[in-house]
Design brief:
The structure is a single chain. By secondary structure, this protein is an alpha+beta fold. Helices cover 50% and strands 16% of the residues. It has 4 helices and 3 strands, in the order ααααβββ. It has a 3-stranded antiparallel sheet with strand order 1-2-3, covered by helices on one side. The protein is rod-shaped and about 105 Å long. The N and C termini lie far apart (88 Å).
Length: 159
């Protein structure tokens, strides 16, 4: 690369310098790409593992939360058939507990069902402590909340 006026440029000078015996070995090393894939893999694998473990952990948490919400909704629906407050509460607690037990992935010692009836509204609250679940404690990932609280409400006495 020599400009029209005949003076050599810096690029031309460096290219001429690298044709000497000193630069030939470094050119061969720079041209060898055999280890590049290994280095790229070493850089990317922690990021891929972070995403994979995050997807697994948060998907499991969402599955647990969805089951707890389903139990609260079923408990509220079952309580509609009760004639008085005590019967509605018993029916809601039994149905929500049976629902969690039937799903099979919950430690029933960590589940708690409460029913509150105020005026014309009945609210079923299901609380589940998932702190002991190993799927929520995967490495490289900040853990999702261990306490899952879901509520379902129904109106009593018609429209």
């Amino acid at each position: 690369m020599v400009p029209k006026d005949g003076t050599p440029t810096l690029c031309a000078y460096l290219a001429a310098l690298c044709d000497t015996a000193i630069c030939r070995p470094t050119r061969r090393i720079r041209a060898d790409r055999a280890g590049a894939v290994l280095i790229e893999f070493a850089i990317l694998i922690p990021i891929l593992m972070l995403f994979s473990f995050g997807i697994i952990s948060y998907s499991w948490w969402y599955l647990l939360a969805n089951g707890v919400q389903h139990a609260a909704s079923d408990g509220a629906r079952a309580s509609i058939a009760g004639l008085d407050a005590a019967e509605r509460q018993t029916m809601a607690v039994n149905k929500a507990t049976d629902n969690l037990r039937a799903i099979g992935r919950y430690d029933m010692r960590q589940a708690q069902v409460s029913v509150v009836e105020q005026a014309n509204r009945l609210t079923v609250t299901v609380t589940y402590d998932a702190g002991g679940d190993a799927n929520l404690k995967l490495p490289f990932v900040p853990a999702p909340p261990s306490r899952i609280v879901q509520r379902a409400s129904i109106l009593l006495g018609g429209l």
